Amino acid sequence: MKGQTSEIINLIILVVIVLVVFLISYFMISSPQKSTQKLIEAHSRYEAAKKAVYGFYYTKVPGVSTSYVVLLGYRLVNGNPVYFGDYYPFVDCDKMVTQYFSEYFGNSWGFEVRDIYLGFKKPSEGYQAIEILIPLPSQNNKVEKGYLYVWSN
């Protein structure tokens, strides 16, 4: 009887030790995965913003022979809407820039230059945001600093 009892106790101790080792290893392995997942999400958000900014500089606006960045530069100098001549008389720059960035980021972006803010209001807390400086052409060969904000939870 003593042998069976000690054998059962040894078996229970072995099961408890294996269970504790399994739980400790599970929590040690799962916590880096969460931080890695946040890093991957931030990297993918940055890559999407980089692609959007590249297109912002090089994509021609439909019906107008300039890029979005030049169009926004005209808007800074002349106000909104911008007059482009008889073929495409007035262009609502704010609407076009808003549509462009909304295609990439939905409602989780904002663009700020001078006293102009386009896009959506930034959340107050609980969100990760990236900020990208976008130089814009202005009067007298000056460059205005525009900031693109992209966020997610």
Tags for this model:
153 residues; alpha+beta; four-stranded antiparallel beta sheet; two-stranded antiparallel sheet; 3 helices; 53% helix
Question: Can you describe what's shown?
Answer:
With 153 residues, the chain is α+β, with helices and mostly antiparallel strands. The protein has one domain (37-152). It has three helices and six strands. Strands 4-3-6-5 form a four-stranded antiparallel sheet. Strands 1-2 form a two-stranded antiparallel ribbon. The model has no long low-confidence stretch (mean pLDDT 81).
Write the layout of secondary structure elements.
Blueprint: H1 2-58, H2 68-78, E1 82-83, E2 90-91, H3 93-105, E3 109-113, E4 116-119, E5 128-137, E6 143-152
Antiparallel strand pairs: 1-2, 3-4, 3-6, 5-6
Helix and strand content put the structural class at alpha+beta
- Give the count of helical stretches: 3
Spatial gap, N to C terminus: 61 Å
Q: Into how many domains do the coordinates divide?
A: 1
Largest sheet: 4 strands, antiparallel
Mean pLDDT: 81
- Contiguous low-pLDDT stretches (5 residues minimum) are none
SSE succession = HHEEHEEEE
> Helix share of residues?
40-55%
Number of strands: 6
Overall shape: rod-shaped
Q: Order of strands in the sheet with the most strands?
A: 4-3-6-5
Provide the gyration radius in Å: 28 Å
Strand portion: 15-25%
